[in-house]
């Protein structure tokens, strides 16, 4: 679901026109078309879609734009790490990971009330979360062999991210040393501290999962890789069945690549089994996905079960936070039976039961 429109559309259009014109040497007057939002965007950031047009060297130029604005009123994550996102997009430019070209960014709040970045909009289709792509939409309408190609293309994007050398790209700024040594240790410490922020400190499944994750933490062997963070089909723009761009880096970090692979698998599981929908025919299963990933990367996947618990735990926290924001913003009246967090909690409990972490008891699937 998209972030609600937080600004006046006409004022935004004029502000962007002035900003873009000042940063387009040799251009005449820049005209910005109507400003809208994507229908299938997430709740973690404000995205504005518009077209820019100007005259340069006697010719009319047009540029489709996507403007990502730093969160202000609706903050799903405790720290948007905005500067780091910009630096990461700049570092990824020219790599094997296709990202929307960064055309410029504004670090201050004077233009739109918050920092923002401007990217060239990549045209294509994105598998939707709401309604789930397992139930309807362009992916569900494809024949099974094309669905398979879409899925494997997503795994190929994941592998392309993990083949990058974070040291060569200068991505040390993604480290979180204030939370300790070791990237998994850092993440667990951060989530432990921030359970109240997400609104999950009273969630039995989440607290049980966190205790299990601390107790069963695997060794962090091998060099840390760049983690996409929010690795899923819904963050890929497709041209037909071929990935055209990888989106949304606000959860990026460093660590074991299994973390991304587990998130990719769990988010698909949530959008099928987690909401009571049949998984689309043609999509490769977990075992085939792992084999394909290993062939692409040369990396032997280890401790995947652990990272699947970690993925289910983190998703439970995010859905708790989104539910709170929906209530606080008035979009959803308090007490409304909104199934997102309930489903995420129920699936987390199921994952914990599969690992034996709950042995004899089922964590409550409530709020």
UniProtKB/TrEMBL annotation:
Coiled coil: none annotated. It comes from Streptomyces sp. FXJ8.102. Pfam families: APH. Keywords: Transferase. InterPro entries: ACAD10_11_N, AGP_Transferase, Aminoglycoside_PTrfase, Kinase-like_dom_sf. This is Phosphotransferase. The keyword rRNA-binding does not apply. Residues 61-286 form the Aminoglycoside phosphotransferase domain. GO terms for molecular function: transferase activity.
């Amino acid at each position: 679901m998209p972030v609600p429109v937080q600004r006046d559309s006409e004022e935004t259009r004029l502000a962007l026109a002035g900003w873009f014109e000042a940063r387009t040497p040799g251009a005449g007057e820049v005209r910005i078309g109507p400003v809208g939002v994507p229908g299938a965007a997430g709740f973690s950031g404000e995205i504005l879609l518009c077209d820019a047009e100007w005259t340069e060297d006697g010719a009319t130029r047009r540029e489709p734009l996507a403007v990502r604005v730093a969160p202000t009123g609706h903050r799903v994550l405790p720290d948007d790490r905005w500067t780091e996102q910009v630096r990461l997009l700049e570092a990824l430019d020219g790599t094997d990971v296709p990202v929307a070209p960064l055309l410029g960014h504004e670090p201050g709040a004077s233009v739109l009330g918050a920092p923002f970045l401007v990217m060239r909009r990549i045209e294509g289709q994105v598998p939707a979360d709401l309604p789930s792509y397992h139930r309807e939409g362009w992916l569900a309408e494809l024949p099974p062999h094309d669905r398979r190609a879409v899925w494997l293309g997503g795994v190929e994007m994941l592998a392309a991210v993990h083949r990058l050398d974070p040291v060569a790209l200068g991505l040390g700024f993604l480290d979180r040393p204030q939370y300790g040594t070791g990237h998994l240790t850092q993440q667990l410490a951060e989530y432990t501290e921030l359970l109240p922020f997400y609104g999950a400190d009273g969630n039995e499944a989440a607290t049980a999962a966190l205790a299990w994750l601390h107790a069963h933490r695997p060794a962090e062997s091998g060099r840390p890789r760049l983690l996409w963070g929010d690795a899923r089909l819904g963050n890929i723009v497709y041209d037909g069945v071929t990935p055209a761009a990888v989106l949304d880096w606000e959860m990026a970090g460093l660590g074991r690549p299994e973390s991304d692979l587990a998130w990719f698998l769990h988010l698909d599981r949530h959008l099928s089994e987690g909401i009571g929908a049949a998984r689309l025919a043609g999509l490769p299963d977990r075992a085939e996905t792992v084999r394909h990933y290993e062939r692409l990367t040369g990396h032997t996947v280890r401790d995947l079960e652990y990272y699947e618990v970690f993925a289910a735990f983190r998703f439970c926290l995010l859905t708790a936070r989104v539910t709170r924001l929906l209530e606080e913003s008035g979009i959803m009246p308090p007490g409304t039976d909104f199934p997102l967090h309930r489903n995420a909690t129920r699936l987390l409990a199921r994952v914990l039961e599969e690992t034996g972490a709950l042995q004899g008891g089922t964590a409550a699937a409530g709020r």
